[in-house]
Every structure is written in structure tokens, then in C-alpha cells.
């Protein structure tokens, strides 16, 4: 109820994210040499559950002693992430933790465990973690 436009804006955003997810499912299916709807149907079709949340990481005086979120892969099919300009997302590649670059207006897409399973491992779930900043609040919207 407060702010008054929150629910309306959030519902509109959710509809737009669903369009992005539908396109990603199609492209990922085609990339496997399958019909465009195969992965989406395998993940639940029109019954797919969507979860929206906000991650809030307040400033931390000793960021060297903590993580925002420990290393993990997402249990979901995929994650569409809207970051803010405060860095903190890291992905594990070739034995190293690499900082994800923030690009204004861009979305970050994580392949999740369900897509890895449905693709028989051809698409890998992204192992990632988050760090905190000493001076700035970091937020993300997966």
C-alpha cells in the first residue's frame, strides 16, 4: 500500500521479466537443437513458479571477514538479476572468483540447477557468491 504505485509497478515488472524468461527458454532450447518450447515445458510450462525478492547488503566495516551470501548455485531454472551500481557479485570460473561487471541497464542471467539437469549438463549452473562493501549499501533484485 505504501508507496501507492508499488504493487502496480511490481506487477508490470513481473510481466516483463516473464517475457524475458520465455525468450531465454526458447533460445536455450534451440541451442540444444530442440524445439523452442522444450525446456520451458520441462521446467513446468505455464505452471512455472516465479519468485521475486530483494537482497539488501548494508555497509560492513570489515568486508574481509564476511560474505553477503556464501558460494552456491541457484536451485531454480534460471535467475534474472537486476543489480545496483555497488559491485559484489562474483562467479567461479577456472578455479578463480571473478567480479561480475556492472553494466547500467543490463540484466544478469544465472543458469540454475534445473536447466543444468534438463540439458543433461550441457548448460552449467552458475556457481556464485556475493560480497559486501565497506562504505556502500548493495542491493540486488533477483
TrEMBL record:
Q: Does the keyword ATP-binding apply?
A: no
Per the UniProt record, which residue ranges are transmembrane?
Answer: none
Q: Which class of enzymes does this protein belong to?
A: oxidoreductase
Please provide the record's keywords in A-Z order.
Answer: Iron, Metal-binding, Oxidoreductase
Specify one Pfam family: 2OG-FeII_Oxy
According to the UniProt entry, what is the EC number of this protein? 1.14.11.23
At the top level, the lineage of the source is Eukaryota
Q: Extract the GO molecular function terms from the UniProt entry.
A: metal ion binding; oxidoreductase activity
- Domain Fe2OG dioxygenase residue range list: 47-142
InterPro entries referenced in this protein's UniProt entry, alphabetically: IPNS-like_FE2OG_OXY, IPNS-like_sf, Oxoglu/Fe-dep_dioxygenase_dom, Plant_2OG-oxidoreductases
Carries keyword DNA-binding?
no
Q: Which PROSITE patterns match?
A: FE2OG_OXY
The cross-references to SUPFAM superfamilies, in alphabetical order and at most eight, read:
Clavaminate synthase-like
The protein's name is Flavonol synthase
What species was this sequence derived from? Hibiscus cannabinus
Amino acid at each position: 500500500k505504501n508507496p501507492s504505485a508499488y504493487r502496480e509497478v511490481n506487477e508490470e515488472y513481473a510481466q516483463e521479466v516473464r517475457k524475458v524468461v520465455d525468450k531465454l527458454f526458447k533460445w536455450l532450447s534451440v541451442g540444444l537443437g530442440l524445439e523452442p518450447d522444450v525446456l520451458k515445458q520441462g521446467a513446468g510450462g505455464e505452471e512455472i513458479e516465479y519468485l521475486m525478492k530483494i537482497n539488501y547488503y548494508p555497509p560492513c566495516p570489515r568486508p574481509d571477514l564476511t560474505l553477503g551470501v556464501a558460494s552456491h548455485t541457484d536451485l531454480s531454472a534460471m535467475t534474472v538479476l537486476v543489480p545496483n551500481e555497488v559491485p559484489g557479485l562474483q562467479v567461479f570460473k577456472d578455479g578463480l572468483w571473478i567480479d561480475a561487471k556492472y553494466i547500467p541497464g543490463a540484466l544478469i542471467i544465472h543458469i540454475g540447477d534445473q536447466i543444468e539437469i534438463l540439458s543433461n549438463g550441457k548448460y552449467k549452473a552458475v556457481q556464485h557468491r556475493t560480497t559486501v562493501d565497506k562504505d556502500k549499501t548493495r542491493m540486488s533484485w533477483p
